[in-house]
Amino acid sequence: MRTVQVELGDRSYPIYIGPSLLPETGSYLEKHGLTKKSTHLIVTDEQVAARHLDTLKQSLESQGYTAVVSIVKSGETSKSLAVYEEVMTTAIQGGLDRSSAVLALGGGVVGDLAGFVAATYMRGVKFVQIPTTILAHDSSVGGKVAVNHRLAKNMIGAFHQPELVLYDMDTLQTLPAREVSAGLAEMVKHGLIRDAEFAGWCRDHASELLSLDREALAYGLERGCSIKANVVSADEREGGLRAILNLGHTIGHAIEAVGGYGEFLHGEAISIGMAGSAMLAVKLGRDASIYPETVSMLKALKLPVVLPEHLPTDELIAAMKHDKKFTEGTMVFIVPDRIGEVSIVKDIPEALVREVIEELRRKEPEHV
Amino acid sequence: MRTVQVELGDRSYPIYIGPSLLPETGSYLEKHGLTKKSTHLIVTDEQVAARHLDTLKQSLESQGYTAVVSIVKSGETSKSLAVYEEVMTTAIQGGLDRSSAVLALGGGVVGDLAGFVAATYMRGVKFVQIPTTILAHDSSVGGKVAVNHRLAKNMIGAFHQPELVLYDMDTLQTLPAREVSAGLAEMVKHGLIRDAEFAGWCRDHASELLSLDREALAYGLERGCSIKANVVSADEREGGLRAILNLGHTIGHAIEAVGGYGEFLHGEAISIGMAGSAMLAVKLGRDASIYPETVSMLKALKLPVVLPEHLPTDELIAAMKHDKKFTEGTMVFIVPDRIGEVSIVKDIPEALVREVIEELRRKEPEHV
Ligand SMILES: NC(=O)c1ccc[n+]([C@@H]2O[C@H](COP(=O)([O-])OP(=O)(O)OC[C@H]3O[C@@H](n4cnc5c(N)ncnc54)[C@H](O)[C@@H]3O)[C@@H](O)[C@H]2O)c1
Ligand SMILES: NC(=O)c1ccc[n+]([C@@H]2O[C@H](COP(=O)([O-])OP(=O)(O)OC[C@H]3O[C@@H](n4cnc5c(N)ncnc54)[C@H](O)[C@@H]3O)[C@@H](O)[C@H]2O)c1
Ligand SMILES: [Zn+2]
Ligand SMILES: [Zn+2]
């Protein structure tokens, strides 16, 4: 088993990564001092519940824990205020009190939703993440929790750090292939922003990662979590450095918004976005190899790098302007300086972004 | 002008109390570094908007601030997730960003609602309180913000401290008499838990307070805020000491719940609750004078001290059991040791609480 410690002062917590952890959840909760006198809440989605809920429930029961369960529909639509209210109802009816914990069993959707419930139930109770997707190696570090408003994603939320994260790699074996690739997009992103060697390792071990080889996965998840944890430790509440985690996300979020969430998975959208940021870097005078290098890494992980024709440039630009990463009207981009290093660049001219978007539509980068 | 500083490390903030502050809001925002580049949000209710919104808007405009406004219905029903979502919509449509602030112009309802919006819009933006009720001297100290779930009051919320509180006593002149009394209940409560002299002062100056005499109000609000600020500084997130602020609230919340919010104002309900706690204290062996003393203070402020016949004891007890102040099934009460001092007493037997409730129904305490 590998452990990544997220250092955040008195909000520090461990991420346990390994096989066969889910059946041990009860013992881990005990080790971390969760009370057995209060009822806890498990939040999960239909897909995950069908595969892994029984194991979790049995583990809790065997250690003398009591929990009520809220099963939400799978997919981004569950990150809504309506579903949030339903989960709150289950918590209240289940009699959760201030010593209770909310356990998120699932991917980023369940993690974000359950985390926001934990952050706001009785003004905040304990939170435990049990991620079941690769993408969730990202969402389980940093304490960002949120639901969507119908007008904008992740608009309603909080910072709420978990007590512990229990990452059982065995649960990943049931993930659909497209979700695997999408999750690896955030993994290679962590290499692209802070660790060139790790980015290269992701490309070189792409086939092991895609086939969910446990050795490769364990290392990849550990490095991915560690890199994110370092960034978050330096800037818990996104005052500065933490923005580098948004590499590819400005264009990515616009693609998700204009595509109407559902067409693209988050990881796919930010993959195209990372290709775009690499292209922007070259246009801003960085080394010309950044773009083909980035694209080759993404393609190795079976991720898209070309923007589909049917997303109009004007709509993408408009979506970017609404993106909450624009503070006080200034347009900010995370731009690679080289593979493994990025800068936060302000005042990027709109015309240049348009140019990048147009070029991102070319069927295939010739020179890759 | 009087200033109470709430000491909470890097979340410390001042409460300015005085006449003629509302027209100076723009200058205060400037002094506290609020940006003029972003749009801000004013949340207020219909009653308050009719009387004081124009003054606030003019003050902001005159200093070059831009704000959108969300006017909610007056009353407790606006502390709901549905209204919360509406206010969020106004914030998003108004283009609020991470540098924006949410300004609460109103009483405790608007403060709690707007504060929860501020705590969760884009994971937290700045918050400014502009209280317009006497009760809000309580709600503007301590950072508790919340909305109600249909099953339980204040169940959904956060801790989110304001940047500053601007308490313009002139706005209080338009308060209905019943709201004045209800607000004074929390004021005298602050005396009853920590400052016998202040509790006595409230009784002795009851007629000035009830007639909104500015000198008396200024002193009362300052002492009330100071006492609460001291308690909150010692225990920001309600781990221990802060519970003493709940004097009268266990019975009070039950009265509100069973009476079906609307029959009793919060201050009226806790007034009966404080009479009940004093009675409980005597039954637990404290000095017999505690009860008549407490009752005389409350009556001087035109507050109720007798429980109406139509609230069944069983329902009140059931409501108390659902009250979130019961951690892990134990029944906790704040019990006066003498006027100006209280203890947190655990394991109060249900039978004793029933006895108190029955006696609280007697038309009038004979010996007062
Ligand atoms: N909080 C953060 O810091 C952060 C970071 C990145 C992404 N996110 C959020 O994460 C969300 C995306 O997360 P996600 O990609 O994990 O999505 P997800 O949670 O929707 O999971 C993807 C799909 O896989 C299914 N699934 C999950 N685990 C499975 C398993 N083990 N076996 C079979 N099926 C399984 C789910 O039911 C769902 O249909 C987005 O809402 C995004 O905003 C948050
Ligand atoms: N956050 C906390 O720490 C805390 C503490 C105590 C109470 N509270 C909450 O505060 C709420 C009660 O606050 P409240 O008593 O101020 O209620 P309120 O905000 O509903 O105000 C009472 C009534 O007076 C009206 N009003 C307000 N200011 C006025 C003015 N200047 N002139 C004329 N009318 C005016 C309002 O429209 C409303 O109808 C409850 O929801 C309670 O839970 C919170
Ligand atoms: Zn992402
Ligand atoms: Zn109160």
Molecular structure report:
Two copies of one chain form a homodimer. The first copy, chain A, contains 14 helices and eleven strands. In chain A, the strands form three sheets. A seven-stranded mixed beta sheet of chain A has the order 1-2-9-6-5-3-4, with helices on both faces. A two-stranded antiparallel ribbon of chain A has the order 7-8. In chain A, strands 10-11 form a two-stranded antiparallel sheet. The mean pLDDT of chain A is 94. Chain A folds into two domains: 173 residues, Rossmann fold; 184 residues, Up-down Bundle (Dehydroquinate synthase-like, alpha domain). Chain A has 368 residues and is an alpha/beta fold. Chains A and B meet through helix 3, strand 7 and strand 8 of A and helix 3, strand 7 and strand 8 of B. The site of one nicotinamide-adenine-dinucleotide (NAD) has 30 residues of chain B, from helix 2, helix 4, helix 5 and helix 6.
